[in-house]
Design goal:
Blueprint (H helix, E strand, L loop, with lengths): L1 H13 L9 H27 L1 H27 L1 H9 L1 H21 L4 H10 L23 H23 L11 H32 L7 H24 L1 H24 L3 H28 L5
Helix pairs in contact: 1-2, 1-9, 3-11, 4-5, 6-11, 7-10, 8-9, 8-10, 10-11
């Protein structure tokens, strides 16, 4: 909204020659509208900076959600031996559940209770540290366990496939441009920018031809003003694009999907728990590292004309 109002104020100021022939009252009214648009834009932008805590809250909540999801699957991947023992023995099952509860309580104290500090450590440092909570090789399941295949199939479906499906959804070209659809948004802004550029060049060509051929219809103020208005419109669109950064989001998701597919192929080719645990570790590392640029990009995002 602030960008739209600023763009409107600039357009009204640039098109003053178009309404110069109107009555004084109309000129005054249009000028007041332009001034109100400019003042409103600055006001909204100012309060947007003041209330940036809302964005910080959204990002820290997103961090907490992602890290809890990572905790869940990392615990599942790093305690395969205990989980499969619990599938056969009730006392082993209760022992694992107790271990998981204690680990989660420790996670809440060590991470969730320090959420804002952890967030700033991520967005302000080049290397925020490792993303793994556990030693993945300390409790591998036995090769002969009867539930081993089901255990690995569950991880493949709930972790590998769900993450790949999410990437496919975000990178889909069929989603509405107004939803979280960075591919469509990137194409939209690219096409819009090119259209504005071609239109401005066309108007400049007409104006130049009018001067050469002495055609009053092509040298009218409306032609030159239209070029300026379209340029301001393109500037506003570019400002919104810089704030949304759909191109960055697209590249992030593409790289993440490539990493997921490579790890999944290695996971499927693995025959033993030792061979399968490595791509599982790779996935969990990729999940953490994919989250970092998302947090940094959105934390640093600004809509500045």
């Amino acid at each position: 909204l602030a960008v739209t109002l600023a763009m409107s104020a600039l357009m009204i100021a640039a098109s003053s020659s178009l309404y110069a022939a109107l009555s004084h009252e109309w000129q005054r009214a249009i000028s007041i509208v332009g001034a109100l648009c400019g003042i409103s834009s600055v006001t909204i932008g100012y309060f947007g900076v003041m209330f940036r805590d809302r964005k910080l809250r959204w990002l820290t909540d997103r961090l907490a959600t992602e890290r809890m999801r990572q905790f869940h699957f990392q615990h599942f991947a790093s305690h395969g031996g205990a989980i499969l023992k619990g599938a056969r023995d009730e006392s082993a099952r209760q022992a694992y559940l107790g271990l998981r509860d204690r680990d989660f309580e420790r996670f809440k104290v060590d991470f969730l209770a320090r959420l804002e500090d952890e967030f700033h450590n991520i967005v302000e440092n080049e290397d925020p540290g490792a993303g793994l909570f556990f030693d993945f090789t300390a409790d591998l399941p036995e090769v002969s366990d009867p539930h081993l295949e089901e255990y690995h199939r569950a991880y493949e479906l709930l972790r590998f496939q769900r993450q790949i499906d999410y990437c496919n959804l975000i990178l889909s070209s069929s989603r509405s441009v107004w939803k979280h659809a960075p591919v469509r948004q990137a194409k939209f802004f690219s096409a819009l920018g090119l259209t504005c550029l071609v239109t401005v060049l066309g108007l400049d060509t007409l104006s130049f031809a009018g001067q050469i051929l002495d055609l009053p219809s092509l040298t009218a103020p409306a032609i030159s003003v239209a070029g300026v208005l379209i340029a301001f419109f393109a500037l506003g669109a570019r400002t919104i694009e810089d704030g949304l950064q759909p191109g960055v989001e697209v590249e992030r998701m593409r790289q993440y999907r490539i990493a997921l597919n490579r790890s999944l192929a290695r996971f499927k080719n693995g025959k033993t728990p030792d061979e399968k645990i490595e791509p599982m570790i790779d996935l969990e590392n990729a999940s953490f590292e994919e989250m970092l640029p998302f947090l940094k990009t959105n934390f640093e995002a600004r809509f500045v004309m």
